[in-house]
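Worked example 2:
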Amino acid sequence: MSDVDLRSIDPATRARHLGNPEGPVGIAIADSIAVLNRRLNEVAFALLAPSSGDRILEIGCGNGKLVPDLLRCASGPTYDGLDISETMKAEAIKANPATVQAGTTRFHVGSSDAMPFADGTFDRALVINVIYFWADPLAHLREIARALRAKGRLVLASVTARYAATMPFTQHGFRIHEGTAIRDLLTEAGFPEVRLSVERHMAQMILGDTHDREFNMLVAEK
């Protein structure tokens, strides 16, 4: 259990570690986010709808503690998680020892606008709460489209602008996009079919308060 008191962390520090978790504070925040986002991830996994044998890419995989939930959604998928944080790569490997050892789960450090994967490598891609940290989202989305095979699917989740306005840390460097703007970016990036919906659910936040959370959920098909 972490000795970090999350209640003592100011919004700017929280925002920095959400974008690039490092050290004990980053680990503590990532652990809390894995619990907080379980419902959101369940919705995203259902929309992703992986099939048997699919190869799945997740951008911003964090500590990897929700990866087993994703792998249970289909028979025999393989998984690659990419994160900007070396700390998160180490945590994700620790959280998934058996599948890492078997070679069916792999974790990488890097940026999603320049990925070390060949064209058409993946069947499915997942991006949850990451777009806020991209200075040029179109470049990242085009790179994801490149790495997906024909008929591949991307699921992208992000907070709505209305919900983001209720969270102090989003005022510190977060780039908030309306769902329709993300839909247009996905179309421009090479996804001709994009569906937009909104997911709402109640959740207990890191500081103990309860929020009615609201997310844009986008399903993009090549």
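The chain has a mean pLDDT of 93. The chain has one domain: 6-221.
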